[in-house]
Design goal:
Layout (H helix, E strand, L loop, with lengths): L4 H16 L2 H4 L12 H27 L6 H10 L14 E6 L2 E6 L8 H14 L3 H11 L3 H12 L12 H14 L7
Antiparallel strand pairs: 1-2
């Protein structure tokens, strides 16, 4: 049985092209997930950063559209996207690291955006849990009350969501060592840790 020349050439072309693609492009990257068990340790801090971001992003929007006023719809749109890493409003999450400090985990803001690993997924998840179905409530509050940042933090983190109503628990010993190892690896120190 003889195959037509065009079919043979097509098969050979496909094989040649596919052999030139580096393995790194064809290999799937591991899917990183949030560490849900870490959320109680950082929930209040995430809420405070979230309130700050909402305030800053609404202020930035007002500057962009001036002399017009920011509408409630504009604020709702920001609130709906601020906890989503796939949206521009969620880019602030990429600048935050989770760092061990004694028996606590702290959120530390960096100058530049980093790669998204389980840390940023954990912060994104905490942010989503905090804002949840309250995004329109906080947007309405911001539109009507036009609060200063401290009042927005109080409203969002203590009154509306209760994210800061209880003191975060102490980090278990094993968790501290995991974040210490992660922090050292990020600084390029690894090996037999």
């Amino acid at each position: 049985m003889e195959y037509p020349k065009s079919s043979v050439l097509l098969v050979i072309s496909v094989l040649l092209i596919s052999s030139c693609i580096p393995v790194s492009y064809s290999a799937k990257k591991p899917v990183l997930t949030a560490r849900k068990e870490d959320i109680p340790f950082i929930k209040c801090q995430v809420c405070e950063k979230l309130a700050s971001q909402l305030y800053q992003q609404v202020d930035k929007k007002q500057t962009q559209i001036s002399p017009k006023k920011v509408t409630e719809f504009d604020i709702i749109e920001i609130a709906e996207n601020v906890c989503n890493l796939k949206k521009e409003e969620g880019d602030w999450i990429l600048k935050i690291d989770i760092v061990e400090n004694g028996k606590k985990l702290e959120l530390v803001e960096q100058d530049t955006e980093g790669e998204c690993h389980s840390e940023c997924k954990t912060i994104e998840r905490a942010c989503q849990e905090i804002l949840g179905l309250s995004d329109t409530d906080v947007a309405e509050y911001m539109f009507k009350a036009k609060p200063k940042i401290d009042l927005l933090v109080k409203y969002l983190c203590k009154d509306l969501t209760k994210a800061c109503s209880v003191k975060p628990p102490a980090v278990p010993k094993m968790e501290i060592s995991r974040y210490t190892i992660f922090s050292l690896k990020k600084k390029g120190i690894s090996g037999a840790i």
